[in-house]
């Protein structure tokens, strides 16, 4: 589907764009191997983003409970593999696949938005709060490098056991994410 800004976005009840990629831990991640399981596919900003690292930290708390319900998670970052591997925090994300997509090929395939306005608004209204929260949790915070963009707006997708997208959440800002309760409810359903 094409939205009002002309950006390709994913439709509900359509197959998830299939990928076969290598994650930062050198494991082959083939989305078709996840048939029979539910999956949260999450697209984050750069490795030093306090909004994204706080979200990952919160999702990690639910990993084992979701896995017990046959639900997996796959995370994408727009950072290079080497940058992600230089972070102790990002190395601890394993066994969850963490895919580096600095060229944003899969960001485009999933319709992840770039918006300077949404990013600026989020930074203006809540950046310092989020930095404080991330620092308190010992999460990495640093400026962007390489092709990382301040304009990237996160997105999350819930895929069912047949590879069909059942929930799409294109964020309206850097703090806007799918509710954890909604993810748990999807895993339970």
UniProtKB/TrEMBL annotation:
Under Pfam families, the record lists: AhpC-TSA
Q: Which reaction does it catalyse?
A: a hydroperoxide + [thioredoxin]-dithiol = an alcohol + [thioredoxin]-disulfide + H2O
- GO cellular component term, pick one: cytoplasm
Keyword vocabulary terms for this entry: Antioxidant, Disulfide bond, Oxidoreductase, Peroxidase, Redox-active center
Q: Which residues cross the membrane?
A: none
Class of this enzyme:
oxidoreductase
Which BP terms from GO are recorded? cell redox homeostasis; cellular response to oxidative stress
Q: Which InterPro entries match?
A: AhpC/TSA, Peroxiredoxin_BCP/PrxQ, Thioredoxin-like_sf, Thioredoxin_domain
In alphabetical order, the GO MF annotations are:
thioredoxin peroxidase activity
The EC number(s) this enzyme carries:
1.11.1.24
Q: Which residues form the Thioredoxin domain?
A: 10-189
Q: Provide the family line.
A: Belongs to the peroxiredoxin family. BCP/PrxQ subfamily.
> What is the recorded function of this protein according to its Swiss-Prot or TrEMBL entry?
Thiol-specific peroxidase that catalyzes the reduction of hydrogen peroxide and organic hydroperoxides to water and alcohols, respectively. Plays a role in cell protection against oxidative stress by detoxifying peroxides and as sensor of hydrogen peroxide-mediated signaling events.
What is the protein name stated in its UniProt record?
thioredoxin-dependent peroxiredoxin
Origin organism is: Ekhidna lutea
